[in-house]
Amino acid sequence: MLKASAYKSKVIPDFTPRIPEGAALSVSSDPSSIVVFPGFCDVHVHFREPGFSYKETIKTGSLAAARGGYTCVLAMPNLSPVPDSAENLEKELGIIRRDAVINVLPYGALTVGEKGEVPADLDGMAPLAAAFSDDGKGVQSESMMRSLMEKCASLGKVLAAHCEDESLLHGGCIHDGAYALAHGHRGICSESEWRPIERDLKLAKETGVKYHVCHISCRESVELIRRAKAEGVSVTCETAPHYLLLTENDLREEGRFKMNPPIRTEADREALIEGVLDGTIDMIATDHAPHSAEEKSRGLEKSPFGIVGIETAFPLLYTYLVRKGVISLDRLIELMIKTPRERFGLPLSEDDFTVWDLEKAGSIDPADFLSMGRATPFAGTEITGECLLTVCGGRIAYRKAEGTK
Predict the structure, then answer these.
(1) 43, 103, 264, 320: least CB-packed within 10 angstroms?
(2) Which bin fits 232, alpha (ψ -120 to 50), beta or left (φ > 0)?
(3) Contact at 8 Å (CB) between 132 and 162?
(4) Are 311 and 370 in contact (CB under 8 A)?
């Protein structure tokens, strides 16, 4: 018998999970600390298949997501082949149908090959794609972005933008700040992020598209989006746990600290927290981006961008934001469940839920991950909160094995 309290709040007031047979749990903790949440939703993951299964697969990525409490994720299109046509998208969907243990919904690419030059077959992919994005690449041409927004608006689809002006990158690997200066690294300026957002917000206002900004990291981005919302632009945005919890002061000369956009200054982190509190930031996504151990062993300069995070997002945010009184648990649940589903039109099901022990203390050990990726800047970090069970579609997607730490 599953003895736990279903999470009740003003955010999700009427959620009553349907507990399937075989969902019994044996726990040593006080039963009052065991809580059932609706399944989390992450609108930004990289599961690497097809094309890069040595980094991650649909199976391992979805298992890792289930362990993190997620029952629905949206998978980015920087794959091989790029899902820029119905035919290519179907190749990814075939693997998803075969191997995924939770709901994995693919993005369709905005442009052919994600090269920013020729529009992808958005009409053909619209019935199959959850939304459209060229994540991993910013659309550099303003006229191309306008055309893509107009098409997405006509299809009623969200356009999720990776905002990065490549002319301002200069081969940078971390934030263009004190750490980069002290250690002789080329930096990535905040303008490379906020300048494309500024451009896109004007276009979104003109076209009426459902515009979503991926992984914002700097204070200027928060302020631009805040103003656009006040003007009635249909814009939402996400940030990630590492931008809310880390700054350039936490950097080490290791590949596990290299992500795009980079972690920035304390002032940027504080602006992101303020954006979470006032509703400017709508959701938290992980940007789970696994690479092989060899790739991430090359240090800050030579490692590829990307870290893993889907197994650690909730306990990190619960430990360092909720338990420290920065935000409420209601707000965290809104950011991880309600607003992502609302923006992307994803229904909440009583057959999708996750069970957590909110008092279980431990530390993050990448060796225990179900993901093939191990690169996390949070290795060794003390956390409170452990996933015991995740059910998706009425089936057990993850259950903590008895006797495991």
Answers:
(1) 320
(2) left
(3) no
(4) yes
Structure tokens at 86: 């119905």
Peptide bond into 315 cis (omega under 30): no
User: What's the structural domain count of the chain?
Assistant: 1
Is position 140 within any domain? yes
Active site residues: 287
| Structure-block tokens of residue 308 | 């893993």
* Residue keyed to tokens 């794609």: 129
Token pair in block for residue 59: 């199976």
Which range of residues forms the domain containing residue 254? 39-350
First-to-last C-alpha distance (Å) of the chain:
22
Q: What is the pLDDT of residue 90?
A: 98
Closest CA to 236 of 150, 314, 329, 341: 341
Give the whole-angstrom CA distance, residue 133 versus residue 117.
14
CA distance 54 to 330: 38
Residue 358 inside a domain? The answer is no
Residue 132 lies in a domain: yes
Specify the pLDDT at position 25: 61
The CATH number of the domain holding residue 342 is 3.20.20.140
pLDDT digits (tens, 9 = 90+) for 304-325: 999 999 999 999 999 999 999 9
Alpha helices (H) along 169-304: 178-183, 191-207, 219-230, 241-245, 266-278, 299-302
Sheet architecture: strand order including 131-133: 40-45, 70-75, 103-108, 131-133, 158-161, 210-213, 235-239, 283-284
Give the integer Cα–Cα distance in Å for 194 and 43. 21
pLDDT in tens, 230-240: 999 999 999 99
Quick check: is 269 in a domain?
yes
